[in-house]
């Protein structure tokens, strides 16, 4: 995290933050903190009220931490906040939902589920007319659903189930909420004629599994992608919850992450059209067996794993892969070999690859010249890298001087691109 180091406070962060905004803080080009995300890092305690002085925040997330106390009312003063997610935190948050959150008129996503929050749902939340996603489920909220919710005209998902609410939400059925796709309440106590998934009984084991997997995945992909039903991320999540015959329990967090990430890869690369039958992707097999028969020896055509069933090698080789390299690939944090050879790649080299600390071989070659943009400076963080092949693309800009830090590098190929400028003098250090 680099907290309390001499680095600029916008570099007190995980390497993934530049895109995902996870595990630290991110900033715009003026070095003002605009995103703060605390994700499964051992954080234990309360949310300090001083957080409101980060007045340029547009995203604030606490996920998988050990929170105590109440939601600070001061958060309601962060005028530009667009996403507020405080979830999967051990049910330690108590007290009411602050009425001041109704001042956040630019808010698009509000997730406060899985706590011990009490009292009524504030009617002030009805002022959040830009809100698309609202989840207050699985708390101890009482009273009725505010009629002001009929003004949530941008809402696509409202989840209020697993509380102690009563009354009726039929006024929402009659409201002009044309984009509303999900409306969940407890139908035992709350009348609803249009709910999409009402709980007639106590929470089921399947409900628990769905919520926990969603919480895990929200820490891996951005909310915009997950809310787009046609995106690779959304399709991977829905497959993992509803169609995966392996039915991975959410308690096995690392396997959920690993399986989801590989499913994102499948859907990002037009997996339905892959030419090889031996890949076994999206089957009930362990994801380390989603592979060609050669993988055990050569590590090609799929993914290989060490004896602890952690993916350490991922190779996509002339299989009809067509699309971009998903940024989520960085969550395969134990990779030592990553290769895309003979595919139809588009887009840029993800900067997030620079966070895979143990990577030794990175080869993205012979891919139809579809890769564009710069060579990420973050690749210079891969100090254990022994081979880097990025030839035969349309990469532009200068060669990053940061690559000179790769003192273990034996093979480097950047040929056949559109690189400009001079060869960095730091290459003197490629001993």
UniProtKB/TrEMBL annotation:
Protein's recorded name: Disease resistance R13L4/SHOC-2-like LRR domain-containing protein
Superkingdom of the source species: Eukaryota
Transmembrane stretches, start-end: none
Domain Disease resistance R13L4/SHOC-2-like LRR as annotated: residue spans: 45-137, 323-415
One Pfam family this sequence matches: LRR_14
Record localization: Cell envelope
Annotated keywords: Leucine-rich repeat, Repeat
Principal location: other
Naturally occurring in which organism (per UniProt): Pseudictyota dubia
């Amino acid at each position: 995290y680099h907290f309390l180091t001499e680095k600029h406070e916008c570099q007190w962060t995980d390497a993934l933050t530049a895109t995902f905004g996870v595990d630290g803080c991110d900033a715009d080009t003026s070095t003002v903190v605009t995103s703060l995300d605390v994700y499964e890092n051992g954080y234990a305690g309360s949310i300090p009220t001083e957080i409101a002085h980060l007045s340029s925040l547009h995203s604030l997330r606490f996920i998988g931490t050990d929170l105590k106390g109440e939601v600070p009312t001061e958060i309601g003063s962060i005028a530009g906040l667009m996403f507020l997610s405080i979830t999967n935190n051990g049910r330690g948050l108590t007290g009411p939902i602050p009425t001041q959150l109704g001042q956040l008129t630019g808010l698009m996503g509000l997730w406060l589920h899985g706590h011990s929050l009490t009292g009524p749902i504030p009617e002030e939340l009805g002022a959040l007319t830009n809100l698309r996603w609202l989840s207050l489920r699985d708390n101890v909220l009482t009273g009725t659903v505010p009629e002001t919710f009929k003004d949530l005209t941008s809402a696509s998902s409202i989840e209020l189930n697993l509380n102690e609410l009563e009354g009726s939400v039929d006024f929402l059925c009659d409201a002009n909420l044309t984009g509303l796709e999900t409306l969940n309440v407890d139908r035992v106590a709350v009348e609803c004629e249009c709910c999409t998934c009402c709980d007639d009984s106590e929470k089921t084991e399947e409900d628990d599994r769905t919520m926990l997997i969603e919480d895990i995945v929200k820490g891996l992909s951005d909310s915009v992608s997950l809310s787009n039903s046609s995106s690779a991320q959304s399709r991977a999540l829905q497959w993992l919850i509803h169609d995966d015959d392996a039915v991975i329990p959410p308690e096995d967090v690392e396997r959920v992450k690993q399986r989801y990430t590989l499913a994102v890869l499948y859907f990002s690369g037009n997996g339905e059209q892959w030419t090889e039958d031996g890949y076994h992707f999206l089957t009930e097999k362990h994801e380390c067996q989603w592979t060609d028969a050669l993988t055990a020896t050569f590590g090609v055509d799929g993914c290989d794993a060490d004896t602890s069933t952690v993916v350490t090698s991922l190779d996509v080789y002339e299989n009809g892969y067509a699309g971009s390299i998903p940024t989520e690939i960085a969550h395969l944090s134990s990779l030592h070999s990553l290769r895309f050879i003979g595919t139809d790649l588009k887009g840029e080299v993800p900067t997030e690859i620079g966070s895979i600390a143990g990577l030794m071989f990175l080869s993205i070659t012979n891919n139809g010249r579809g890769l564009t943009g710069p060579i990420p400076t973050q690749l210079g963080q891969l100090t254990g890298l022994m081979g880097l092949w990025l030839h035969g693309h349309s990469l532009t800009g200068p060669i990053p001087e940061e690559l000179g830090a790769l003192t273990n590098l034996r093979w480097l190929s950047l040929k056949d691109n559109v690189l400009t400028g001079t060869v960095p003098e730091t290459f003197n250090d490629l001993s």
